[in-house]
Amino acid sequence: MPESILQRVSNAVPQRVLVAGASGGIGQAFCLQLALQFPTIELIRLARNTRKLLPLTMPTQDIAFDITDTHSISNALQALPDKAEIDWVFIATGWLHDDILRPEKTWRSLDADHLLYAYTINAIGPALLVKQLLAKLNPDYPTRIGILSARFGSISDNQIGGWHAYRASKAALNMLIKNFAIELKRMKRPTIVVGLQPGTTDTPLSEPFKRNVSPTHLQTPEFTASHLLQVMQCLTSEDSGQLFDYAGFCFAP
Prior knowledge:
This protein has helices spanning about 25-35, 70-75, 110-135, 165-185, 220-235, and strands spanning about 15-20, 40-45, 60-65, 90, 145-150, 190-195, 245. By secondary structure, it is of the alpha/beta class. The chain has a 7-stranded parallel beta sheet with strand order 3-2-1-4-5-6-7, sandwiched between helices. The longest helix is centred in the middle third of the chain and has 25 residues, at about 110-135.
């Protein structure tokens, strides 16, 4: 029986944390949990619209950025010093649907623009953010990077099909996470990068699908964020490149 990494004893206390997608349901809850549990940390929040960020009980560095725009990512990271030392990076961006596009139930609904948009936000944007962060951070500092992924991106776990753009873009993200981890290990760089599956959380992303979810399986953002925070605390170098759910269990890509 696999064991949750939450069974490990960890006293890791971050000093500086960067949260990208900090105005979203899970990103916002993650920031609130950080403020609650580590009130003296330095918190850097990246969001599409910084005016939507909630005030916290501690000072924050709030930076506007667009995960779909390479230049916007680059400009946002210019606010960080060279060789910045950041303990945790939590990338909470993601896209499933909007007012026009919905998850496809059949291959007959496949659409190029839908696929490209999902890949841009769910795979390309996070990958380019990590790329530019790695160039900006101190290469000798042990940074932990957690990126919101999804069990829907697991090829081996897919038993019902559908949701093509979302599944495929998250599967691409999972491969990129693995590639980053392999290369960083070769470089002997003490950076951990993992995918994090939040579970079904009561946010705008899951809103249209909540009626199909049992209330016992629908998590609050606070519950999800507190568990993902614990997962970040418990990571070790051997975990890099793997995918973990909110309960700390590793799942197959």
